[in-house]
Amino acid sequence: MERVVVAAGRFEAAEAALAEAVRRLEARLESFSSAREAARALHAGPKSALLVDTSLEGVAALVQDIRSSEDADLLPVLAVVPAASETDAVQAYTMGADDFVPVADLQTLLLPKLRAAIAEVAEVAPPVAGRTVLLADGSQLHRIVLGKLLAQAGFAVTAVTDGTEALDLLERGRTFDLLVIDLGLARVGAIDVLSHFRIKLGTGTPPAIGLVHVGVSDAVALRALTSGFRCVHDKRRPPEDLVFLANETGANAERNLRSSPRLLCSTLVRWRAGGDQWRVGLTHNLSLRGLYVRAMDPPRVGTAIELSLTPPGALRQVSLRAHVAWRKDFAERAVRSYPTGMGVALHEMPARVQMVFEEAARLLASSSGPAADPKR
Known about the structure:
- This protein is of the alpha/beta class.
- It has helices at residues 15-24, 35-44, 59-67, 86-95, 106-117, 140-152, 163-171, 190-201, 218-225, 240-248, 253-259, 351-367; strands at 4-8, 28-32, 49-53, 77-81, 99-102, 131-136, 155-160, 178-182, 208-212, 231-234, 263-272, 279-286, 290-294, 304-309, 318-328, 341-346.
- It has a six-stranded antiparallel β-barrel. Strands 2-1-3-4-5 form a five-stranded parallel β-sheet, with helices on both faces. Strands 7-6-8-9-10 form a five-stranded parallel β-sheet, with helices on both faces.
- Helix 8 links the parallel strand 8 and strand 9 (208-212).
- Helix 7 (163-171) runs parallel beside helix 8 (190-201).
């Protein structure tokens, strides 16, 4: 079957690099200057990968349309961002991209990422659903995307559109291990929904995560946190963050709080193996023992790497030695219980660097959802 890469955006400055990468992969390139034209091409037949310019008008809606489609949701999406920054990386992942490439690095980083993108999808069975979650959200898009992600992480998801439907399930005796409730919920508000669960179930009330977005004020989020919600997830953050929070606040929350060394963040990480080209990824959690770096094309397990990052709250970059302890191959993207990338085990840190990491961990522990001991 012919492999086709669709490019949506204005890539004049990198046109030669893009054409050369696609040629070396023995694929065909279809380039479009508008998101609407790219959407028509995607609907016309199966494609191997989509490359998008994040500054292109309508590109976010294009990617969201793909992610909410049952037929095209596994299409690899690679985002070209203006700069290697945490803001641009988070925007790419929140949009629904699988990975990102700074425009200045297209010449060196595009080929390996496209090669990983068009590899055959592996046959990997999703985890057996063992935990139940009620997802209450008025947005059909978010019910589909977040519900699918939670299901792939091993949750049995029941989705409703408003607070009245959620309370109807409560009255009918339905029980759940976790509640995920939009704080902008219609008819019966999220805080009132949780209050009814607490009145009826008492100490058996499941932990709750609140969903916030542009229309929800900080005051509402704070009121939710002081009214029994364990934590909040901002829909403007990468959706995989919700899986992290769900696992931290699920049925085994107390055990998770004691044992998990991971603290939620969004930090840009540069890494390289040997004298290779520096690459860039994003970590969503931090500990004194290791990081998980998102990337389509992580190196093999056991590879020694050098890392460079600025921990949250730090004023300067630190350099670390590490090795790849485990990886999730992009070919396994059919199961998104964890995003594609590599688990990195950190080697012994110099005392100065360890102090920077400990301070970052304390900062994150005070601002994240579930707290954890960063030294564990």
